Amino acid sequence: MDRRDFLKGLGTAALAGAFAGGAARAAEAGEEFHFAVVADPHCAEGPRKGMESLGTGTDRFLRCVEAMKALPAAEQPDFVLVLGDLHTDAFLPLLKEVPYPVHVTFGNHESTPEQRKNLRDAFPGDFTVNGEPSDYYSFTHKGARFISLCDAGLGGEHIGTLCSENIRPRGQCEWLEAELSAPEPRKVLFAHIPVERNGGDREMHLNRNDSRWMNALLEEKGPDAAFFGHLHTPTEEYSNGKSRVWQVRSCCWNGGNAPVGFLLARMTPGGVSCREILTGGGA
Ligand SMILES: [Fe+2]
Questions:
Q1: How big is the chain by its Cα radius of gyration, in Å?
Q2: Over its length of 283 residues, how does the chain's per-residue pLDDT go in tens digits?
Q3: Contact criterion met (CB below 8 Å) for 276 and 261
Q4: Cα–Cα distance for residue pair 269/12, rounded to 1 Å
Q5: Peptide bond preceding 169: is omega within 30 degrees of 0, i.e. cis?
Q6: Cα 171 to ligand 1 centroid, rounded to whole Å
Q7: How far is the CA of 42 from the centre of ligand 1 (A)?
Q8: How far is the CA of 40 from the centre of ligand 1 (A)?
Q9: Cα of 86 from ligand 1 centre, angstroms
């Protein structure tokens, strides 16, 4: 084979590889899968008055894991998203009990530099942007992009923000804009403190101006889904443009001792749908 034939052969092989890669990506982008979404495990809390039979925060988180394991094979989650307020010291030892990959985001209960470092160190594959430690990150799975925001800063305040001395590195908003423009057709956002859906100045939500910016961004970019925790109220779902937004009940406790539980999400080419699995309470 002369040099020209060799190079031509290389080109054909590269082209074939590119088509195969494109086909693989197209197949991935159409692949259905499930993932679980668990909010506010508060693992260090003791038994709750009126819900003593459900045990500690740790017990209540592990009830979710047991409920996942009991799901039929076709609904087994590929991974679990945990939406903050983990109580790092109590949560991290439980990871060995979870037979699924876990991805977490910071809550207002993880707002000290030490707590954040401990969590980043426990998930070294996640909390990284451009090879540097980061409080926000993304990962891809079967052609879908999952984007974890850090919107809890300022030493544990219950109103959220996207910019703070305690959210590093600088530039989370520009990073999010780029993430939502990434080539994957399917995208999911997850964070602890929910956007205020009407852009109001309201307790327990992302601050007024960040909420207005986020609402406009969701409407413009249209990720399939956004998941938030923090509210400790029964799960609510609403739309913003093409995006479905879920405010997910806690798996540890909710106001008025409303039932605890988690979401089983199903990703399809058409978007994300969820069904709620209750794990106790509400008697
Ligand atoms: Fe919270």
A1: 20
A2: 344 443 344 444 443 444 444 445 555 667 999 999 999 999 999 999 999 999 999 999 999 999 999 999 999 999 999 999 999 999 999 999 999 999 999 999 998 889 999 999 999 999 999 999 999 999 999 999 999 999 998 778 999 999 998 899 999 999 999 999 999 999 999 999 999 999 999 999 999 999 999 999 999 999 999 999 999 999 999 999 999 999 999 999 999 999 999 999 999 999 999 999 999 987 5
A3: yes
A4: 31
A5: yes
A6: 23
A7: 9
A8: 7
A9: 9
